Automatic annotation (TrEMBL):
Transmembrane segments: none annotated. Belongs to the CutC family. InterPro entries: CutC-like, CutC-like_dom_sf. It is found in: Cytoplasm. Keywords: Cytoplasm. This is PF03932 family protein CutC. The lineage of its organism: Bacteria, Bacillati, Bacillota, Bacilli, Bacillales. Pfam families: CutC. PANTHER family: COPPER HOMEOSTASIS PROTEIN CUTC (PTHR12598), COPPER HOMEOSTASIS PROTEIN CUTC HOMOLOG (PTHR12598:SF0).
Length: 227
């Protein structure tokens, strides 16, 4: 079972690797759902991390619909992320109908090159998740989809996560379950859905708060719960 943890600073990056996480999602603006971190933070994280660093590429929190100016910013950010040596990027683009914005996605994937790509929880705002999954499965660069199975926390959407994991089974995609998971709930979600990757934010931190440091005890409890 692969455990991904959100990091917002270099102390987080060091702690996540030392305490047993397998991969980092590096973000800033966590109160807004995660935004693109600074270049200085990206460079430092890539330099010190012993585990892969996936960098959020999200220029604003207004929506997941981006115009040409936004996409130009995102392409430049992706180029900087590649230059910094990070393992991959985390992106998500939708059109006004709630479908994956294919032209925008292809623009960003062209900029990504050989970076590892996660499609983030914009997926949970799609009008039809199974249709969106089939769209994303056409792009080998996209390795996984971060999803709670919808708008509700993942422990309340186990059946939908199972349906997504089954739909992804015949593709190269993996379902990365996240949002609302904790050491107490993750085993039920994993067993009920069959996912092989899980994602943690505040639940990996002291007092369950993003204002607190990443906790060795909480990550160890998560690892114990998932085996």
């Amino acid at each position: 079972m692969l455990v991904e943890v959100i990091a917002t600073n270099i102390a987080d990056v060091r702690a996540a690797g030392a305490y047993g996480a397998d991969r980092i999602e590096l973000v800033t603006g966590i109160a807004e759902g995660g935004l693109t971190p600074s270049l200085g933070l990206i460079e430092a994280a890539a330099a010190v991390s012993a585990i892969p660093v996936q960098v959020m590429v999200r220029p604003h929190s207004q929506s997941f619909c981006y115009d040409n100016a936004d996409l130009a910013v995102m392409r430049r950010d992706i180029a900087a992320i590649r230059q910094a040596g990070a393992a991959g990027i985390v992106i998500g683009v939708l059109d006004e109908r709630g479908a994956v914005d294919v032209p925008a996605l292809e623009t960003l994937l062209a900029a990504a090159g050989d970076l590892d790509v996660t499609f983030h929880r914009a997926f949970d705002e799609t009008a039809d998740q199974l249709v969106a999954l089939r769209t994303l499965a056409a792009y080998p660069q996209i390795r996984r989809i971060l999803t709670a199975g919808g708008q509700r926390p993942a422990p309340q959407a186990v059946q939908q996560l199972a349906a997504l994991a089954e739909a992804a089974a015949d593709t190269h995609l993996r379902i990365l379950a996240g949002y609302g998971l904790s050491a107490e709930t993750v085993a039920v979600v994993v067993q009920g859905s069959g996912v092989h990757e899980v994602h943690f934010g505040s639940a990996a931190r002291e007092d369950g708060s993003f204002a607190r440091p990443i906790s060795r005890e909480r990550i160890e409890a998560i690892r114990s719960a998932v085996g």
